[in-house]
Amino acid sequence: MEAMLDTGQVEALAVCDPSLACIDEAMKLAPGARSVPSLEAMLELDIDGVVIATPSALHAGQSIRALEAGRAVFCQKPLGRTGRELSAVVDAARTANRLLGVDLSYRYTAGMQQIAELVRSGSIGQVFAVDLVFHNAYGPDKPWFYDPGQSGGGCVIDLGVHLVDLALWALGFPKVTDVHARLSRKGEPLVDGEVEDFAVAHFTAGAAQVRLACSWRLHAGRQAIVEAAFYSSKGGAAFRNVGGSFYDFTAERFDGTAAVRLADPPDLWGGRAAACWARQLARSTKFDGTAAQYVHSAEVLDRIYGR
């Protein structure tokens, strides 16, 4: 919300939240906004767009209601718990001809912006391997994350969604084949009613072999390990967190044993996806066809989950 308002392109007219503390914090940022009791009440107001930051089970339905009411939408990830849910949201946005955005924020880091340009331009040759890692030594503190009916899954849909999207986005969303995965909880196979806290997956994306590992509550020796590395016959590049941080990242380009730094912290990337959507909304509320990209990533997650 702060990042959007800081663009100077939008204003907040209303907020809705079951937490009075959250409403108070929102009102500090937008003292002229009003508090409303529901999404339906918000949609009755003269607004152009809605930002949805609710538990995952609500994302698709709330997004569709807002879009059908003629409002643009910016939603937390995942936009849907399954590919089918997510496709329904994109279809609703296309039918309503309204802008749809998702908070896939790692695309907007300075490091990944430079790596994506290297990959797409062919500067490092054709990528044949991608390694993706997201280990969170903690884990979600809300009970709904551990209910597959509400969350859609565990660490893959919570953390892996970012990295699957990063890889496909940098590679230009090529066709994905040969998806294989192994999901577990506390080192044991999943049983009904559980979500995974550790996952390893492999798939082919165009010419690249992609490996994904992600987890919650892993004994990682630090708060987090986050990495997206791209390798080709002519070189490589990697995006990595610094010292276990969830917020500080470096990016490097590789040539044999040599490494050239592309980006260093500090980089205030956390709100860039939201700010970008706000600026786009100020220009036009109409549907942007790039929203179809969200479906491709969701379909890969479906295949990781065996759906």
Keywords for this structure?
single chain; 307 residues; alpha/beta; Rossmann fold; Dihydrodipicolinate Reductase, domain 2; 2 domains; 9-stranded mixed beta sheet; 3-stranded parallel beta sheet
Structural overview:
The protein is of the alpha/beta class and 307 residues long. It folds into two domains: 2-104 and 271-288, Rossmann fold, CATH 3.40.50.720; 110-266, 2-Layer Sandwich (Dihydrodipicolinate Reductase, domain 2), CATH 3.30.360.10. It has ten helices and 14 strands. The strands form three sheets. A nine-stranded mixed sheet has the order 8-7-9-10-6-11-12-13-14, covered by helices on one side. It has a three-stranded parallel sheet with strand order 3-4-5, with helices on both faces. Helix 4 links the parallel strand 3 (49-52) and strand 4. Helix 6 packs across helix 8 and helix 8 packs across helix 10 (293-304). The radius of gyration is 20 Å and the shape is globular.
Q: State the shape.
A: globular
The fold-level CATH name of the largest domain is Dihydrodipicolinate Reductase, domain 2
Placed side by side, the strands forming the largest sheet appear as 8-7-9-10-6-11-12-13-14
Percent of residues in beta strands = 25-35%
Structural class: alpha/beta
- Unreliable stretches: none
The name of the CATH superfamily of the largest domain reads Dihydrodipicolinate Reductase, domain 2
- The CATH architecture assignment of the largest domain turns out to be 2-Layer Sandwich
